[in-house]
Amino acid sequence: MTGDVRHNAAQSRYELEVPGGLVFSAYRRQGDKLLIVHTETPPALQGQGLAGKVVRAMIEDVRAQGLKIVPLCSYIVDYVARHPEVRDIVAE
Asked: pTM for this one?
């Protein structure tokens, strides 16, 4: 049902296209930080773990690039709280 998460640098977001819509997490780049400003899943697709899949892929990419994140949207704030293993990439 799900495809692969892609980094759409032109639109400053990580996205996953699935039947029924597009799941994405948008950011603003600020030096070596990504300010995560919005994560969205179409209402009909919520509760299926799709936003989590996007965020996990984003975190892997951020870590590989040696960057940090600044959680600004509520989904990312909650995700970091639930997943202490990602706190190493959260900017202080």
From this structure: 0.91
